[in-house]
């Protein structure tokens, strides 16, 4: 297996990257070429201004076997190699490699990273002291291989649960889904949907056609900003990052942006990724002046109904343990943090 360090994303073919991802151990929208590229261009909304790209591929007989999308940055007082997308706005990260090639790809990758070959236009190799990989799915085989490889090399290894990622399993029937929700909450969902529909305030929901992408993005970000915490999160570099991600998802066919309307105004929005036959709930916004209509609950209920009617097998709330997720019947899975130190 031949490993190559790339100076830029343009050195890797987009279609080849995404084709490999389809068969990878972790196939998520956050590992798509266009997402990774958009994240790197904005350094996570300014989270990693001084990061250096460490983008590595492995080939065998010219066939792409694996991709390690990494960067190096000073983190917790040491130079660490992190996964592109770390940490705050990319819910699931991993290496990109098929299961049959996975273990040997990681073995070769660690050998390559520890060798003198890692010299990107510099007279000296990257001076990294460890790996710090966030948001690995708890089902990822990368976790076990990192532990094994660390033991073989005498490196220190630590693994911890990082965040819950609640999900709702769906089977195509909205009533069946509701039957699995706790009785009191089931009645609340139905009551709030019915009250909104009968309010005579022109309540309706729709999926954006993104005919004017910039205007639709503005409307979505404006609804996010009704939440004080999200308004603080949306500083200018992060706004540029969010715009780039939304554009990339739209242009490549996996954006799913829905709005709820009342009194002729858009009062709530849900930004999802429609990818790999499931809906990934990325972010949302609600106009607080319309809380009497429970716009967040109502729109989420319509979103889940759409998922059932359109045969999506799961709604993934992704990271976070907010109470409403469990009231809608979500069950926890987790993302992990794996740390490896050479000392």
Structure explained in plain terms:
By secondary structure, the chain is an alpha+beta fold. The protein folds into two domains: 2-163 and 336-341, Aminopeptidase (3-Layer(aba) Sandwich); 167-316, Aminopeptidase. 36% of the residues lie in helices and 29% in strands. It has helices spanning 14-22, 33-46, 99-113, 142-153, 174-179, 183-197, 213-224, 228-233, 236-251, 295-309, 323-327; strands spanning 2-6, 52-60, 63-75, 78-83, 96-97, 130-137, 156-164, 167-169, 204-207, 255-262, 265-275, 278-286, 314-316, 334-341. Helix 3 (99-113) packs parallel to helix 4 (142-153) and helix 7 crosses helix 9.
Q: What is the CATH architecture assignment of the largest domain?
A: 3-Layer(aba) Sandwich
Instruction: Return Rg in Å.
Output: 22 Å
Shape: elongated
Beta-strand level of the residues, as a percent range? 25-35%
* Number of DSSP helical runs: 11
- Total beta-strand segments: 14
Distance between the termini: 27 Å
User: Which residues sit in consecutive blocks of at least 5 with pLDDT less than 50?
Assistant: none
Relevant CATH superfamily of the largest domain: Gcn5-related N-acetyltransferase (GNAT)
CATH class of the largest domain: Alpha Beta
Number of domains: 2
The helix-and-strand class reads alpha+beta
**What's the assembly state of these chains?**
single chain
Characterize the main sheet. 8 strands, mixed
CATH topology of the largest domain: Aminopeptidase
The whole-number mean of residue pLDDT values reads 95
Approximately how much helix is present in the residues? 25-40%
Q: What is the H-and-E element order? A: EHHEEEEHEHEEHHEHHHEEEHEHE
């Amino acid at each position: 297996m031949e490993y190559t360090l790339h100076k830029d994303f343009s050195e890797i073919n987009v279609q080849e990257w995404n084709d490999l991802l389809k068969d990878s151990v972790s196939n998520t929208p956050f590992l798509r070429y266009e997402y990774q590229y958009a994240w790197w261009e904005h350094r996570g909304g300014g989270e990693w201004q001084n990061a250096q790209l460490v983008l590595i591929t492995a080939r065998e007989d010219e066939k792409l076997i694996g991709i390690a999308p990494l960067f190096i940055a000073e983190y917790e007082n040491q130079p660490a190699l992190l996964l592109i997308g770390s940490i705050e706005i990319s819910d699931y990260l991993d290496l990109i490699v098929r299961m049959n090639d996975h273990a040997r790809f990681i073995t070769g990758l660690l050998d390559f990273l520890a060798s003198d070959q890692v010299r990107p236009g510099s007279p000296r190799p990257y001076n990294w002291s460890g790996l710090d990989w966030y948001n690995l799915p708890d089902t990822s085989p990368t976790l076990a291989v990192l532990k094994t490889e660390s033991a073989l090399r005498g490196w220190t290894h630590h693994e911890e649960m990082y965040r819950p990622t609640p999900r709702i399993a769906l089977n195509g029937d909205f009533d069946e889904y509701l039957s699995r929700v706790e009785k009191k909450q089931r009645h609340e969902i139905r009551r709030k949907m019915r009250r909104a529909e009968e309010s005579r305030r022109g309540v309706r929901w729709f999926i954006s056609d993104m005919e004017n992408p910039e205007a639709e993005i503005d409307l979505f970000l404006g609804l996010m900003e009704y939440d004080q915490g999200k308004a603080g999160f949306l500083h200018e570099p992060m706004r540029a990052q969010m715009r780039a991600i939304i554009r990339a998802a739209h242009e490549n066919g996996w954006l799913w942006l829905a709005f709820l309307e009342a009194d002729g105004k858009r009062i709530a929005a849900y930004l999802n990724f429609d990818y790999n036959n499931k809906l990934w709930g990325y972010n949302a916004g609600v106009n607080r002046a319309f809380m009497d209509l429970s716009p967040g609950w109502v729109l989420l209920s319509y979103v889940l109904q759409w998922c059932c009617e359109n045969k999506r097998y799961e709604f993934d709330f992704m990271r976070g343990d907010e109470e409403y997720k469990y009231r809608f019947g979500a069950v926890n899975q987790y993302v992990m943090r794996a740390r490896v130190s050479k000392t």
